[in-house]
């Protein structure tokens, strides 16, 4: 039974427990569940927040509690409006909060746009300056992984190409893999956690195993032969390669430049508004 079918079965069961006929205007394209003071709760609203793995009685209880809390919030709001002498202060706070949300969202977009235009030289300068903060926690590698059926032809030739590893042999390796490999991954240009690559082998190879220093790792089982040609490796405790540190560099620039950039933008906005006479001063602070 799929989640959607189960959800509507639960909803029908819980709704039938307290079904009253009322004349309420509802959206004809949606399934109404209940209404309070002409406000309507629809099935899709509940379905969107229903936990994925909830079933049986827990599902019914969840739906019933949600419906009850939804109704209580509307009733409390109605009672509060009736009994509060003035909501003017709340209206002002709400409007101020809305303004701040819009301003913050706009500032985030400004910073995001500015970061897109950061030069590579700036990124490298930050990397060189902050190297002490970019320390690897786990080993990473670059390379090529190939898994072939144990009876695949020309395995010695493939091994030779992997050992030599240049532009010419790489093309031959790729053609061989397309024809014979059951799995192959080329990550010569992408640093990858060693733990992810190690899982591809039938037997674990410890990071400190001398075999990893030879550049080519080979394993076999009853079904396949596995090759890993390592073209780059970095030990934990060493400085992260630039590509790995890049997200941290961007974050440093974001935090460091944010206040200066926003302040500069605000001052420019203010001064331009004065020049264009969008701001009127009724009282001067000058004596």
How would you describe the overall organization of this protein?
The protein is α+β, with helices and mostly antiparallel strands and 287 residues long. The chain folds into 3 domains: 3-83, no CATH class; 100-135 and 239-277, no CATH class; 137-234. The chain has 9 helices and 6 strands; from the N terminus they run αββααααβααβαββα. The protein has helices spanning 3-16, 43-49, 56-83, 88-116, 120-129, 155-164, 167-180, 194-198, 242-275; strands at residues 32-36, 39-42, 140-149, 183-193, 216-220, 224-234. The strands form 2 sheets. The chain has a 4-stranded antiparallel β-sheet. A two-stranded antiparallel sheet has the order 1-2. Strand 1 and strand 2 form a beta hairpin. The mean pLDDT is 84.
Write the layout of secondary structure elements.
Blueprint: H1 3-16, E1 32-36, E2 39-42, H2 43-49, H3 56-83, H4 88-116, H5 120-129, E3 140-149, H6 155-164, H7 167-180, E4 183-193, H8 194-198, E5 216-220, E6 224-234, H9 242-275
Helix pairs in contact: 1-3, 4-9, 5-9, 6-7
What is the gist of this entry?
The protein has 287 residues and is an alpha+beta fold. The chain contains 9 helices and 6 strands.
